[in-house]
Specification:
With about 250 residues, this protein is an alpha+beta fold. It has three helices and 14 strands. The chain has one domain. Helices cover about 15% and strands about 40% of the residues.
Length: about 250
C-alpha cells in the first residue's frame, strides 16, 4: 500500500464498577515498513526532528535497528511463514519532537495482501512496553469477524488489575483500518476499546492540514490520559500499584 495518513477515532468504554467512556479524534501514519525510507516529506522526516517525524528507535527493539528485520524475526520465531508480504505499521508520529503511543499496530500480510498476523505494541505511562502477537493456530487468514485472544500480562491502567484476557479484532484494508481490543474478566467485558479510521494521501498539504486541525495531537493524547485518570478517581475507582513488567518481550 501507499504511505498514508489515517484519520481515526479512538474510543474507550469502561463498564464496571462505574461506567466511564470517552472518545477523541487523532491521526496516524500508516505505511509499509519496506517503504519507510520513502516516508520523508518537507514536513515529515525519518529519524530526525521536523514538524512531524518518525523515529525507528521509538519502536521494536528501541535501539534504532531495522524495524522490518525485528518484526520478521518475531514471525520466524512463531513459524508464521505465510506472512511473507508487506508489514504495515499504524502509529502516531512525533509532533515537534514529542510522541506517546499507547498502542501501535503492525499488520503482517501475505503476498496476496491478506492479513496473517498482527502485533499490538503497547506502552504505559511508566515508560514500559510490551507486545501481543495475534494469529490463528492454523495460520489461516485473519478476517474482520475473527476474535483473537491473549492473556493480559502487562500493566497499562493503574485502575485495572493485570488479570483476565484481551479479545482482538482487526481490519487492514487499502482505504481503512480498525482494531478492537476488549479487556474481559470472569464477569464479561470490563473495558471496550477501538481505533478506526480512513486513509488519506500522505503529502505536504495533508500533513500541514492535520497539524493545524489537530494541534499538538500527541500532547493531547497524554493530557487526556491524565485527565481521564482524574475523572476515574473522582468516581471512586481504586488505584492499583504497578506490578513488575513481564520478562518476555512478546506474548502470543
Amino acid at each position: 500500500m501507499k504511505s498514508a495518513i489515517t484519520l481515526a477515532t479512538v474510543m474507550h468504554k469502561r463498564l464496571r464498577p462505574r461506567l466511564h467512556s470517552f472518545s477523541y479524534h487523532v491521526y496516524y501514519l500508516c505505511f509499509a515498513l519496506s517503504q519507510r525510507t520513502k516516508l520523508s516529506r518537507r514536513f515529515l522526516s525519518l529519524d530526525k526532528w521536523n514538524l512531524l517525524s518518525f523515529y525507528q528507535r521509538d519502536h521494536g527493539a528501541r535501539d534504532g535497528s531495522d524495524l522490518e528485520t525485528w518484526m520478521r524475526q518475531i514471525l520466524a520465531a512463531h513459524q508464521i511463514t505465510e506472512a511473507d508480504g508487506d508489514i504495515i505499521l499504524l502509529t502516531m508520529p512525533r509532533i515537534l519532537g514529542y510522541v506517546f503511543n499507547p498502542v501501535s499496530f503492525w499488520f503482517c500480510l501475505d503476498q496476496a495482501g491478506h492479513l496473517r498476523a498482527v502485533l499490538s505494541e503497547v506502552a504505559n505511562t511508566f515508560g514500559e512496553h510490551h507486545s501481543y502477537l495475534s494469529y490463528h493456530d492454523d495460520h489461516r487468514v485473519i478476517v474482520p469477524d475473527d476474535q483473537m485472544r491473549a492473556t493480559k500480562v502487562f500493566h497499562v491502567s493503574p485502575f485495572m488489575d493485570v488479570q483476565g484476557h484481551y479479545l482482538f479484532r482487526f481490519l487492514c484494508a487499502s482505504d481503512r483500518v480498525s482494531a478492537t481490543v476488549n479487556h474481559v474478566d470472569d464477569k464479561g467485558i470490563l473495558l471496550a476499546t477501538s481505533v478506526s479510521g480512513n486513509h488519506i494521501s500522505l503529502s505536504d498539504k495533508t500533513l500541514v492540514k492535520c497539524f493545524l486541525n489537530y494541534p499538538l495531537v500527541t500532547l493531547k493524547v497524554i493530557t487526556l490520559i491524565h485527565w481521564e485518570a482524574i475523572r476515574i478517581i473522582l468516581k471512586g475507582i481504586r488505584y492499583r500499584p504497578k506490578p513488575p513488567p513481564p520478562l518476555q518481550q512478546v506474548t502470543r
